[in-house]
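Note to self: the last two entries modelled the partners one at a time, which told us nothing about the interface. This time every component goes in together.
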Amino acid sequence: MGHSLVAGVDIGGTCIRAGLVSEQGEILSSREWPTRDFPEPEKLVNLLAIECQKMAEEHSGYTWVGTGIGAPNGNFFRGTIEFAPNLSWKGIVPLAEQIEQKTGKTCLLTNDANAGALGEMLFGAAKNMHDFLFITLGTGLGSGIVCGGRLVYGHDGFAGELGHVIVNPGGRLCGCGRKGCLETYCSATGLIMTYREIHSGGKPESFGKPQNITAKHIYELAMQGEAEALNAFEQFSKTLGEALANAVAITSPESIFLFGGLASADDLIIPKTKKYMEASLLPIFQNKVQILCSGLPENDAAILGAASLVWNQLKKS
Amino acid sequence: MGHSLVAGVDIGGTCIRAGLVSEQGEILSSREWPTRDFPEPEKLVNLLAIECQKMAEEHSGYTWVGTGIGAPNGNFFRGTIEFAPNLSWKGIVPLAEQIEQKTGKTCLLTNDANAGALGEMLFGAAKNMHDFLFITLGTGLGSGIVCGGRLVYGHDGFAGELGHVIVNPGGRLCGCGRKGCLETYCSATGLIMTYREIHSGGKPESFGKPQNITAKHIYELAMQGEAEALNAFEQFSKTLGEALANAVAITSPESIFLFGGLASADDLIIPKTKKYMEASLLPIFQNKVQILCSGLPENDAAILGAASLVWNQLKKS
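The predicted structure of the combined assembly is written out below.
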């Protein structure tokens, strides 16, 4: 396996990136395309087969041995992307099988957060850890759970939906159609909604100014000491900390990794989230569980995570 | 392994039971002692070594090969019972090591609910299942989680504390010292509290009559159609169903097994809990997860579960 390369492919709503990843987690080459260029998955299958081979040929002595894919609503067991809300592909797309047939090499697929968790274990800050949670804080909240050194897929391959734990029954309407999911509070979108509610005196219907604020703006305001922005981060951390305490009671991790721009927002999230988590933890878990910033480089994490699906399998066999 | 026997030992607050269990899950012999007879663990270690050997000698052709123990606050990794609230043993008791030294045979230990989950997988209704939750409804609420055919112990061996997920922040005071834990609502104790609250018009401080009602009484009243008792079971099922929906989002099980007297309370819990769980489930999990009554015989479940700790390891090796 010394000179093998695995293609890691990240399928996002805006762009698709592919890179060749070495056993040590180096990305030797990469490519990027707009997602809208692929109205049908077949076009992507054909392009990946050609482009990954081209990239591999740039590195003499290396062989491209397989492809890992991270995609929204990706199902590991079936190798499918199922009803992905951010893609124009409809229904259930058997992408892993199509890529295996086209390339003649193994192809594994899962969702972005699961891929990220494996990436953290193989190439990030969770090396040598067997039990941890990996949480992505972006537009939504995704999670991957590693127990006993293995990713938890569950019976149907969709385990790890911590973002859709209901933390406030009857609360904010979520994209999934239900109300009060964790990700409606603890994500960039949730932070913005909380900030607007604070500005409007708690009335969620009548959002006051500023209308088009971003999570980054709120972060900057908080760093300048604006009370409302600091309050929004405080509420974010309280809701996240309490939800993590419940997740700890179920899975008992060694560490919890937070990934994404918000996670690294200086001291605005991690220390506060830790404080609220500890206050809600069952005594037997107190002062045992770390909350850490992901050790994966933000721009390359998706490719590394996707490739680690195949690297993880190669290392086991 | 055809003629091996494993001792299953159940350590409870009232009594300690030990039985020899065959590979097929038959209990060939068993013994029972009052827990108060063992103010020091050493006395139990000595007795078990003698009694299990005696029982084994009653069955010619069989060999006693190891001991599995289910105990409150049992830790699998360390083989310890740690600060068990219902036992007079103080601090951390390295019981598995003591039994191994005395008997010269392997000894494994975990908590009651984890042992029950393994028992369900080896000898009960979860045969051939790889992903399920096992929930004990007794004085409290315990849980064991099986993912990918393996029990989830977590980093420190205490995973699976679903009873201590906080479902109502600031709610009922729990034995763990925090407020609003699931088991303060969904257990025999919780059912009684709910019933009393209903009788006192919702004021938890001023419990009305009847003071000394048991969960069994409430069950009988519900079967007679008493509105308050039916209401108490309805609230029980709603809280449990919503908590299970959140646990499903994290672990994606094939089935959820309920164990204990309350679980088999005719149609008062399972169908209603299923209804409330479905109403709270993320769409991708709807109509996929069964809620079933445990297939373990109630009186023998603890011994079978404890023995399955060792049988599970023998079958893997």
